[in-house]
Amino acid sequence: KRAGKIDAPLVLDQLRCNGVLEGIRICRQGFPNRIPFQEFRQRYELLTPNVIPKGFMDGKRACEQMIKSLELDSNLYRIGQSKIFFRAGVLAHLEEERDYKITDLIVNFQAFCRGFLARRNYQKRLQQLNAIRIIQRNCAAYLKLRNWQWWRLYTKVKPLLEVTKQEEKLVQKEDELRQIRDKLDNLSKNSQEYEKKYQLAMEEKTHLAEQLQAEIELCAEAEEGRARLVARKQELEELMQDLESRIEEEEERVNALTSEKKKLQINIQDLEEQLEEEEAARQKLQLEKVQLDAKLKKMEEDVALIEDQNHKLVKEKKLLEERANDLSQTLAEEEEKAKHLAKLKVKHESTIAELEERLLKDHQQRQEADRSKRKIETEVADLKEQINERRMQIEEMQQQLVKREEELAQTLVRIDEESAAKAAAQKTQRELESQLAEIQEDLEAEKLARSKAEKQKRDLNEELEALKNELLDSLDTTAAQQELRSKREQEVATLKKTLEDESANHESTLMDMRHKHAQEISSINEQLENLKKLKGGLEKSKQQLEAENADLATELRNVNQSRQENDRRRKQAETQ
């Protein structure tokens, strides 16, 4: 390693292995240079003169117009939200162009400055040349006239002419002094009159101040009344909001009641369907009962036939036993007949056993049929009672539904009336708001009139002070000041008249406002009473609807319980 010597391939290989060249390549492919819109416009605006108009313009639009005028390739830049991005080398090119532009501007500025200085020096030289020529011409004329006799006579007579003019001026000044003294006498008389007028004006000022104080107190009372009205308005708005919320709750409850009514109607339809099904089941049971009765009759007939056969067999058995006794005596003789009779006996005994078994079975079947008959009769009686109870319940439910429909109609009418009352209350609220807005406008107009009156009062005081000062200084003034005084007197008279008119208007507006306030307060009290009555009616209707809702809920529970019991009994009857 030595200073000043470098192995270029080795360094390049190291940079490639470290990823520096790849980073540079990626940086060149991207947009490594970025600059905010404002900085770009401030730095490179001189490259695009007369492109951006005067006045405010968005930085993004200004940069777009500048780049459009620079005619840059669209691949060399990208415009973001707050910055503009450039590829590698674009900003360097713009900096070179900026340096060239700045050098051109500086050279042109230097040339302009040199030209301006040269032109100013040239004008100065021309003025000096003209002055030299004028001095030379005057000196030549003086040299010609200084020894001329008539010139000397003119120079001696000219001061005497000025003396005669001074005497004439003195006479004129004395006349002016006499006129000024006469004017001063008149001014002294006028000043006395002005002092009297000033005293009268001061008295009027005190009177106006008292009136203004009274008006201020009235305005304070009006402000207090306005504050009370605003508070009252807020209370009424809160009441209206409460009433609206309650009306919404009542509407929700009415909707819930209507939904419950629909559910009850659906339940009634289901109950009617169940009643129809139970009626069909009852008819089916009656048919089964008739069939069972027919079976019982048939079985009784069979039992009677079997008993007849049994009696016959018993008789035959007795006869056979008698014959057996007879035949036993003649057993030896008739063995073949005995064997045959034994066979017949065995056969008859088997038939007798079969008949006895059949009798037992028929007796058991008859007992079971009797039990099922009694059970069916009890179930039929229970079903008849349940059907009668269901009919009674349906009639009661229908009556209750009629009552509920009438009550719902009444509640709907009541809700319509309440909605109409609500609309009327909203209308009165809007009217009150408009009246309050008018009152506020009147108060603002009154404040403006009051401020104008105070301002005019201050202006009058200032003008009176100015007139007083002018009266004090009028001893040394001329005739023009008297005209100003007459103008001031006229202005004072007009101002007094305007003050009187404004005070009268102010009093009339105050009276009107008091009358309006009294009427509005009475109307607000009436509206409050109406709202209280409406609130009481709504609370009563709310309590009634809650009670009706509780009754309907209990009835629904009872109906559901009875329906479940009927389903259970019907299932038990079907299983049996």
Automatic annotation (TrEMBL):
State the organism of origin: Anopheles maculatus
Domain Myosin motor: where? 1-99
Alphabetical GO CC annotations of the entry are: myosin filament; myosin II complex; sarcomere
Q: Would you identify the family this protein belongs to, as annotated?
A: Belongs to the TRAFAC class myosin-kinesin ATPase superfamily. Myosin family.
Q: Give a GO molecular function annotation for the protein.
A: actin filament binding
What is the recorded name of this protein? Myosin motor domain-containing protein
Q: Which PROSITE patterns match?
A: IQ, MYOSIN_MOTOR
Which residue stretches belong to region Disordered? 481-506, 541-576
Keywords annotated in UniProt: Actin-binding, Coiled coil, Motor protein, Myosin
Instruction: Output the InterPro entries linked to this UniProt entry.
Output: IQ_motif_EF-hand-BS (IPR000048), Myosin_head_motor_dom-like (IPR001609), Myosin_tail (IPR002928), P-loop_NTPase (IPR027417)
Q: Which Pfam families match?
A: IQ (PF00612), Myosin_head (PF00063), Myosin_tail_1 (PF01576)
